[in-house]
Write a structure and sequence with these properties.
Helices cover about 15% and strands about 30% of the residues. The protein has about 210 residues and is α+β, with helices and mostly antiparallel strands.
């Protein structure tokens, strides 16, 4: 079944998942070999206030080498972003093009032709959590660093379904977690993508 058909079937699904890194026991066999030349300091962050890639002095250059570890998966966390394969990029764009942004990396391999990889960001952010009905601590309230602390055992998040609308994947404002629906999960599994998992976000609907 095509990705677009799966999306059409699941557009009204209300079951949501945390979009997370899957468990891989071996080290990744890649490195961003020109990271120091990108001009971003020690960590590659999205600019504060709106998700996007920061200005870079060079195109990110990914070195893939078996001597470093396993081949890269379709989804690899990289600082504040991800590194994704060409086929994962195609899936995410097909499912929800407005939610994602990509920046192509230069890739090279010590063993033949290198696969295409992209820096990826989920740029859609939704104020989806009903604070009055939820139970959690707010950290640094009243500042630009306001955020939710959901680590306590009694933390509970109530989502406002009407805010999600037709979105299939998004970030939750103040919690900075990526959440997706059944359409994304089904499309990724149909494509055989590796390196990610879909965790239960323990959502209550308001």
């Amino acid at each position: 079944m095509s990705v677009s058909r799966l999306v059409a079937q699941k557009r009204r699904a209300s079951k949501l998942y945390k979009f997370e890194r899957g468990f891989i026991s071996t080290s990744p066999g890649w490195t961003m070999e020109n990271f120091d030349a990108l001009g971003v300091g020690p960590v590659l962050y999205s600019p504060r206030g709106k998700r996007s890639f920061p200005p870079l002095l060079e195109t990110p250059r990914l070195l893939i080498a078996r001597s470093l570890g396993r081949p890269p998966a379709d989804w690899e966390p990289f600082h504040d972003f991800w590194l994704v394969s060409d086929r994962m990029k195609n899936v995410l764009e097909t499912v929800d093009r407005e939610a994602v942004a990509f920046l192509r990396c230069e890739t090279r391999s010590l063993r033949g032709e290198a696969p295409v990889y992209w820096l990826c960001d989920i740029v859609r952010e939704l104020d989806v959590i009903d604070e009055e009905k939820s139970n959690f601590k707010v950290l640094e309230d009243g500042t630009d660093f306001r955020r939710y602390n959901g680590t306590a055992m009694d933390s509970r998040f109530v989502f406002r379904e009407e805010v999600i609308g037709s979105a299939h994947i998004f970030r939750t404002r103040f919690l900075n977690k990526v959440v997706c629906d059944q359409a994304v999960k089904d499309a990724c599994r149909a494509a055989g993508l590796k390196g990610l998992r879909f965790g239960n976000p323990y959502i209550n609907w308001g």
